[in-house]
Design brief:
This protein is α/β, with parallel strands linked by helices. Among the domains are: 149 residues, no CATH class; 172 residues, Vaccinia Virus protein VP39 (Rossmann fold, 3-Layer(aba) Sandwich), CATH 3.40.50.150. The protein contains 13 helices and 7 strands.
Amino acid sequence: MPEPLDATLRRLKLERDEADRRYNEALTALDQALGPPPDLPDPPAAYDEHQITPLNEAWNILPARPGGAGLRGRLAGLIWRTVAPYFQRQLTFNSLLVDHLNRNVAAHRDARRSAERAIEGLREHMSREADIHSRLMFLLQQITPYLDTKGRETSVGALVLNGSLSALADVTAKRHESAATRLSRVERRLEVRSAELEGRQADLQTSLAMSQLALTAVRRELERGLPGRAAAPDSSSPPLSPAPAVADEAFADRLDAYKYVGFEDQFRGSQAVIRERLESYLPFFDGSADVLDVGCGRGEFLDLLASRGIRARGIDLNPEMVEVCRRRGHDVTHADAAGYLQGLEDASLGGIFAAQVVEHLQPAYLLRVLDLASRKLKPGGTMVLETLNPACWVAFFESYIRDITHVWPLHPETLKFLVLASGFTSATLEYRSPVPAGDRLQSMVIPEGADPALTGAAETFNTNVDKLNQRLFTYLDYAVVGRKTAPVHPA
């Protein structure tokens, strides 16, 4: 996805600011690195030639050799011959020293002149270098304004282009908004019309399905023969009395049985969905034989048991449900639970299963069924009773009260107690079908650094949300798993 223009401009400005910062830091570092030129020493002092001339005049300390005759002359000659060697050596030393000083006068003069010229040259060079550094810093300081000046023309062009693009975008946005508004209106009309058509289609499908089920029920009852019309009377016989009212009511109930089949098809779920949901109960009956499915309905659990090779049979009060199961090859009887169990031998069933049945029973009838189930189940057998969880708000208001055949909601702990009180040695609760997370109450997200008062209120709100979720939005179904422990025979 391309970057928006305003985001690009912000990014470029940040990059430019960062480049300016680094450039200024580098310029400051360069200026500090150059520093001022060092101080140069003065030339050495001039060579002291003050005594050169006197030394050249006084180096010869040897007097002239005395001459003359007489005692005085001879005495002077004797003294001269005695001290002359000593004066001669001093004269030689004086001569060498004066000669050395004379020869170094010129060298000292040249050295001082050279030092003066060198120091002066260094000073001029360092002055020029400092001037170059100053001019270089000035040049570097002028680069940014120079580049800014060069980019103004481009910036002005960009502003003009941006203005034109903005105007074009406004026009396009207005046109798009207008088109989107018109399209939204059309879509709303289409959605309303589509919803109406879908509703009508669903109603028509329901009506058609119910009509087909009703037609099937009528055809089946007509094939069996109407009550009171098993044989046509002859003319000599007295007229038959009308059929009892009970027979007429039973016939009418059989004709209306198709309605509950349609109800389950529409509201409980497809057979494939129900089979998938009930599949987790199969491990409770592994190794069992002769499992009874009470209220087997359309036979989904009987299908699952057959797929595992577990022999099973079913009972149901709805004749249409019984016909549906029989057409699929299951052993199903049209009977009520208590009456059917009463006719079985004690300890004859390997397992009992009832899904969404106990909530249809009156309390006294339920207690009788549980007592019979405990007697008819073999030692080591298992009974599984699944029902809606009335402790869950969604299950009660969305599912329980929708079905007019429901008689009594059973709290999980209540049903567990009744199973244990009916002779089962153990009973456990298993909760099924959790309410989807999206349908539960949602907690507030507390931002970091929020006001303490707001944080406290939000935490209290979230605590209350958790409590409501734990009470109202938990599990849609539960099952009580009752077992009869096999007797332990002493060794």
